[in-house]
Specification:
By secondary structure, the protein is mostly helical. It has 14 helices and two strands. The chain folds into two domains: about 110 residues; about 140 residues, Four Helix Bundle (Hemerythrin (Met), subunit A) (Up-down Bundle), CATH 1.20.120. A two-stranded antiparallel ribbon has the order 1-2. A hairpin with a 2-residue loop joins strand 1 and strand 2. The protein is elongated and about 70 Å long.
């Protein structure tokens, strides 16, 4: 992790102070907040935000100190509303940190900071081999707790590959979205109370929930954009109006983030 951009520091200080908002921090609360991050600082008086900007700049060379500050910003113990309040700061903080290559979130209720890896995709020329690999089926079996659902998803995976090989590229893309939706739904239903209570949840919501829990990384979210664009083509009129016709590369581009999702789940899912 390199040093934060100076404009990022300005925005962080504004978020932490939250002047005029329901999370506004007084000087006393700011000092307690910084102590919670392990920082010991003096307040010489004056406006809060400029003081905090200079304080963060003074620590900008210290990676551990900055990460501790970011974790404290989203620590449920910092807020009366606990995790729900902390999640609000995750949603506000990540857009600020993205250009610095950072992301924050929760694993359970524990805050984390990690570096975004924009080069995490499997090379496109290797995706077809991974899609046909029996090892991918074994990974699905290990992730999915319901054996009957695992078999359905593996069959869906085989159908996607058969469609791709036969040149039915649109059917392969639509099947890919169905596969990911089923995979994430089983994982979330078997591990979280919120999803368990719902009969249905859109793919975008499932991706967002898995990401908020720290189970998939930011770059895996781009899958939703690929699939959303082409799933609507189940209606021929929409495909006609768009003038887009998927090909083999389209299927493989969709599967790059799918493989990233599966890799993230294998690495980041809590072991229970």
């Amino acid at each position: 992790m390199g040093e934060l951009d100076l404009r990022t520091i300005d925005r962080l200080a504004t978020l932490i102070c939250s002047h005029g908002e329901r999370f506004e921090r007084s000087v006393r609360e700011l000092r307690r907040f910084l102590e919670g991050a392990g920082w010991t600082v003096d307040y010489p008086g004056g406006a809060r935000i400029p003081w905090l900007v200079e304080t963060i700049r003074a620590h900008n060379h210290d990676r551990e100190a900055i990460e501790a500050l970011l974790r404290r910003m989203i620590d449920p113990r910092e807020y009366d509303g606990g995790l729900s309040d902390a999640q609000e700061f995750v949603d506000r903080l990540n857009p600020v940190l993205t250009t610095d290559g950072l992301e924050v979130g929760h694993r359970g209720a524990r805050p984390f900071v990690r570096r975004l890896d924009d080069n995490n995709d499997v090379p496109l020329e290797d995706v077809a081999g991974r899609l046909a690999d029996p090892a991918l089926r074994d990974q699905v079996r290990n992730l999915v707790r319901n054996p009957a659902m695992a078999q359905i998803l593996i069959a869906r995976l085989d159908e996607v590959e058969a469609s791709r090989r036969a040149g039915a590229y649109l059917l392969a893309v639509i099947g890919t979205g169905s596969f990911v939706e089923g995979l994430l739904h089983d994982i979330l239903v078997s591990r979280t109370q919120t999803t368990r209570k719902e009969e249905r949840a859109p793919l975008a919501d499932l991706l967002a929930r898995a990401h908020a829990l720290g189970w998939i990384q930011h770059d895996a979210l781009k899958f939703n954009g690929y699939v959303r664009e082409y799933r609507n083509f189940v209606h021929p009129r929409q495909q006609l109006e768009s003038g887009l016709f998927p090909d083999n590369d389209t299927v493989l581009l969709c599967w790059q983030p799918v493989l990233a999702i599966i890799n993230d789940l294998r690495e980041l899912l809590p072991q229970t």
